[in-house]
Amino acid sequence: MKTTSKPLTVFLSAVMALALLCAAIAVPILCRPFYYAHIGPLELERSTGLTWEEIRTAYDEMLDYCLGAEDFSTGVLRWSDSGKSHFTDVRSLFQFDLQALACALGLLAALAVLTLRGRQRPALLLGRGPAFWAGAGLGSAFLTIGVLAALDFDRAFVAFHALFFPGKDDWLFDPAVDQIITILPQAFFRNCAVLILVLLISGCAGLIVFDLTRSRRSEGVHSKLEKT
Description:
The chain is an all-alpha fold and 228 residues long. It has eight helices and two strands; from the N terminus they run E-H-H-H-H-H-E-H-H-H.
């Protein structure tokens, strides 16, 4: 007979939340058409004097480097050592997110196997399972962050860079030297943040609904067994 474990519930909730967070962040990183869709609406061809293909090539080469390519380049756009240094830091963050996602998914798969075959299963905390707490905890945190960022995105943008690039100012690009910034307007980063938040909240809602639905089904099964 299987026993329940509260530590297993807490750990599983944390891993679920980590997987969802990393997956949401990975979407705008890996989905290049999301950027391409901004070229026209943000009028980047008009503002930069570049063609659509030149903008796409510059973005692709920059992103290739951030995802692991050996050489840094930005197509026809000029860049400096300072600019490259910032993208080297970005590269570390991107790769950390993808590695964390892979680890979280691997842990979830291993925990699923152990739960099915082992002697322990997650306990209910206040009547709810790990999926509920992962969704409720992560969703509450990022709804709060989203509201605060919406009130003053410029300040949130600066705070983000101060947090993830402490003591550095090489993210403050000079467009005449590091021309890549001309095709990466702040509006694009704002839309990335919105996409991540929407994916997170949708994923959290899905986890909560999954847990509630599973609980109702379980209650229904127990009710039928009692009647028989």
